[in-house]
Amino acid sequence: MAKFDMAAHVRRINSQDKIATGILTAIVGLVLLILAAIVIYILVAGAGKLFDVSFLTSKPQQFKVGGGIGPELFNSFYLLFLTLVISVPLSLGAAIYLSQYAPENWVTNVAKTIIETLSSLPSIVVGLFGFLFFVLTMGWGFSVIAGAVALTMFNIPILVRTCQQALEDVPRSQRDAGLAMGLTRWETTIHVLLPAAMPAIVTGIVLSAGRVFGEAAALIFTAGQSAPVLDFTCFDLSSPSCPWNIFRPAETLAVHIWKINSEGVVPDLEAISNGTAAVLMVCILAFNLIARFVGKLLERRLTSE
Amino acid sequence: MMTQEKPLAEKGNRAPAVASRAEASAREGAEPLLRTCDVTVTYDTFEALHKTSLTFEKGQVTALIGPSGCGKSTFLRCLNLMNREIPKCKVGGSIDYHGRDINTRSENLFELRKSIGMVFQQPTPFRKSIRDNILFAPKRHGLVKGKDECDALVEEALRAGALWDEVKDKLDQSAHALSGGQQQRLCIARTLAMHPDVVLFDEPCSALDPISTFSVEETIREIAQTGICAIIVTHNMEQATRVSDRTAFFYVGDMVETGPTKQIFSAPKDQRLQDYLTGRFG
Question: What is the domain extent for residue B202?
C-alpha cells in the first residue's frame, strides 16, 4: 500500500474546493444575470408609463391611443383582498388541524396528498373548473366573487403548506411546556404556538399575495376579461359600476396584459402592455419587500425587545 | 419512605392492596404525596418501562439516574400524564396522588397539571414578556385577578425562582432576551406561580453552563425546603449527589435500586448500579 501523502491530499482537496466554489458562483451569477435582465427590460420598457398618473388612473380605450389601466389596478387589489379574506382563515384552520390535532392515519395522509396535488395543479385548470362551476352552475357569471373563489382554490394549498410548516417549526418543547402547565391544546395553539409562528405565517401570506396578484389563467374565465367603468361615488352594490359589487366582471392587470396582446386593436398596444407589466412587477416587488420587512419587525417585537 | 413495592398481582386484587397501603402509611404516620404502583409504559408494542413502584414525599428531592434510554424520563412523564400527548403511548399501573389514582381516563389533566408542574431540558420561555410568561397560565386558570394580585404573583414567583433581582427592572422585556440559565429559572418560576406541590425536572441543567447549573440546583433545593416535592431526572451523577435526598437508578426499562442518595452512591447493592457508578457503561 502506497504511503499516504498528506501534502498532496491537502493540495487536492483545496483545489476541489476552489473548483466547486467557482462553478457554484458561476451558476448563481448566471441565474442573477437572467433575472436582472428580465427585471431591467420590463422596467425600462414600461418606465414611460410607470410614472404616468393618468395611465394609472384612467379607463382603458378600445380603439384610441392613451387608454389607462385604472379599473384593472383597482380590480387586482380588490380581488387580492377578497381572496385573502377567504383563503387565510381557511388555510390557517386547516394548517392548525393538520399540524396540531390530526391523528396519523389514512384520512390525514389523503388530505395531505390532496393539498400537495392541488398546489401543483395548473392554474388554467382551476380557472376552467371555476368557469364551469362558479360561473355557469352557480350562476354567478363572470364576477369578482367567482374570480376570488378560483384564486382561493389556487392559493389555499400553498398557504396551508406555509402555515403548517411555520407551526411545525415552533419547537415541540413550546407545545409541551404549554400542555404541562395545564393549558388545553387550543389555548396552547392560540396563545403559544401561533404568536411564535406569526412572522413566518405573515411572510408566507404576503408572498402568496404576490402569486395571486400576478395570476392570469385562473381569472380569464372566472373574473372575466372586461372592466366596467367604475364610479367610486356609487355604493349601490347591485350596480355594475359600483367598485365593491362582487357580482360585476373584473379584469385584472395580468388578464389585461394577456387580453390586449391576444386580441387588442389599440394602436399603442405595446406601450400599454409594457407599462402594465411594469406596474404589476413593481407591485409584486413591493409585496416581497413588505413581507420581509413585516416578518423581521414581528420577529424583533416577539423576541428581543 | 420510598420503597420498592411488591407487585400488585401478588396481592390478588386491587382493593386489599389499597387497604394495606393505607395501613402501611398509617404506621409511618403520613400519607405519601405521590406513589406509583407497577407503572408500565408501552410505545405501540414495545414496553419502555417495566413495573415501577416508587414513593415520593413532600419536601424531598428525588433524583432519577441511569444511562440514556433507561426509561427515567419516560417514567417522569407519567407523573403528570404527559405521556398521553404521545400517540400510541400507554401507561399501565396506578399513580396515587393525594390518595387517589390519577392514571384514569376521567382524571382532569388540566387541573392535575396545575398542581404537578414540569420543567424541561431546554428552557422553554414563551415568546412573551417576562411578566406574561409568569402570568399566562395562572390567568388562563383564573387564579389571579386585577393588577395588584398579578404584580404580587409575578414578584413572588420570580423570587421563588431566584430571578427577581436580575429581572425586576425589565419585566416587560421579551423572555427570549434572557440568558439560558435565566430562561430556565424563569420556567421554574412560571411553574411555581401556579403553586404546585410537585415539580418534575427533566434534565433541567443539561443545556446550561456550570454557573447557571449551580443556580438552578440551588433553586431546586430552596423550593424543596418550602415543602414542594421535587423529582429530577439527571445524567449527571454529581448533580444527583448535590441536589437530592433520595435516588432511584433505572436501567433498560427497570427501576433497579432506590434509597437515600448517600447510600446509593456509597454502598450500591446491585451489580448494574455498581458498574454504572464506576463508569463501566452508560
Answer: 8-277
Asked if the structure places residue B282 within a domain, the reply is no
Nine cell digits for residue B50: 417495566
Nearest CA distance, B110 vs chain A (angstrom): 4
Q: Which domain holds residue A286?
A: 52-303
Here the ipTM equals 0.81
Would residue B3 count as lying in a domain? no
Q: What's the pLDDT tens digit per position in A17-65?
A: 999 999 999 999 999 999 999 999 999 998 888 888 888 888 888 788 7
- Partner residue facing A182 (CB), from B121, B141, B173: B141
Chain A residues inside the 8 Å CB shell of B84: none
In angstroms, what separates the C-alpha of B88 from chain A's closest C-alpha? 10
Grid cell at residue B77:
412523564
**A with B: how many residue pairs have Cβ under 8 Å apart?**
74
What are the angstrom distances between the C-alpha of B112 and each of A70, B100, B138, B140? 62, 12, 14, 15
Picking from B121, B176, B190, the nearest residue to A303 by CB comes out as B176
A159 interfaces chain B, CB cutoff of 8 Å:
no
- The enclosing domain of B27 has a CATH number of 3.40.50.300
Instruction: Convert the pLDDT of each residue in A246-302 to its tens digit.
Output: 888 888 899 989 988 888 788 888 888 889 999 999 999 998 898 888 888 887 776
CB atoms within 10 A of CB A64: 9
pTM recorded for the entire structure: 0.79
Length of chain A: 305
Tell which residue, A200, A130, A190, has the closest CA to residue A165.
Answer: A200
Domain count of the fold of chain B: 1
Contact A196 B114 (CB under 8 A): no
- Rounded to a whole number, what is the distance in Å from the CA of B270 to chain A's nearest CA? 34
Helix (H) or strand (E) holding A8: helix A6-50
